[in-house]
Amino acid sequence: MIEETETIEEFLTRCSADVEEAVRTAAAAEILPRFRRLAEHEVAHKSGPHDLVTDADRLAELRLTEALGALLPGSVVVGEEAVHADPTTYEAIQGDAPVWIVDPVDGTRQFVHGDDGFCTLIALAHRGVVMASWTYAAARGQLATAVRGRGAFLDGERLIAGPPSPGRDLVVATSHPDFTTDEQKRVLRALCTDGVAPRPCGSAGLEYLAVARGEADAVAFSWEAAWDHAAGLLLVEEAGGAHLTGAGEPFRVTGGNTLPFTAARDAATARRLAGLLGATA
């Protein structure tokens, strides 16, 4: 619980471990018991054949909404499934109250297919600034965390992305073709050039983690949903990376961005890719 005169930074110093426990508890109770054990009635489609939702998504988000709200009274929760039910709840990201941005199962398609490439994403933002993030790959037993100004960590080890190795193509995870329009595909084709090796992304959260670890060089995405990006963008920033839109501006979780945008393991790579994307936007 936040004290009356406590800042968000002070709250994070005191309660980060409680947030970690809430994430682990939700995954242990609602996600992992259903991994590779989903019944047919526990899976449904939302907006299209590739947009899946499961009971694990819904129930984990409900559990996290209750736990996170209790940790920080006066905060609000913007969760993917709640926004799907009532799109107006997304507007809270632009408000003055601290907001928890939650994706209970990022990579639902992987989860449904029994692939361990999924994670739970939580970010705490205040007035449009992401202050902290948690990326929990439950099936892999990995937890990545970041607090603004304090660094990024994976299972307690500091993450430093570092610049790409010279002389090789940049590995860039891009919006999956199943989730892009023809126009978005056209713009993203700007990355099909010498020195760049684009590939379709999996879980956005795990792709951001790969950039923060220096295992991938960048991501390039064509959608704005904050629950997919907020946690990973801070993770990349705190590992030494940068993010830019095609207009050359940092991505804003409050929306209104020029798309696509990129997040890369260093500022020079971000500028290079944003330039390619901006030239065709």
UniProtKB/TrEMBL annotation:
It comes from the Bacteria. It catalyses: a myo-inositol phosphate + H2O = myo-inositol + phosphate. InterPro entries: Inositol_monoP_metal-BS (IPR020583), Inositol_monophosphatase-like (IPR000760), Inositol_monophosphatase_CS (IPR020550). Mg(2+) binds at residues 80, 103, 106, 228. One of its GO terms (biological process) is signal transduction. Gene3D superfamilies: 3.40.190.80, Fructose-1,6-Bisphosphatase, subunit A, domain 1. Keywords: Hydrolase, Magnesium, Metal-binding. Pfam families: Inositol_P. Its EC number is 3.1.3.25. The keyword Hydrolase applies. Transmembrane segments: none annotated. Its cofactor is Mg(2+). One of its GO terms (molecular function) is inositol monophosphate 1-phosphatase activity. This is inositol-phosphate phosphatase.
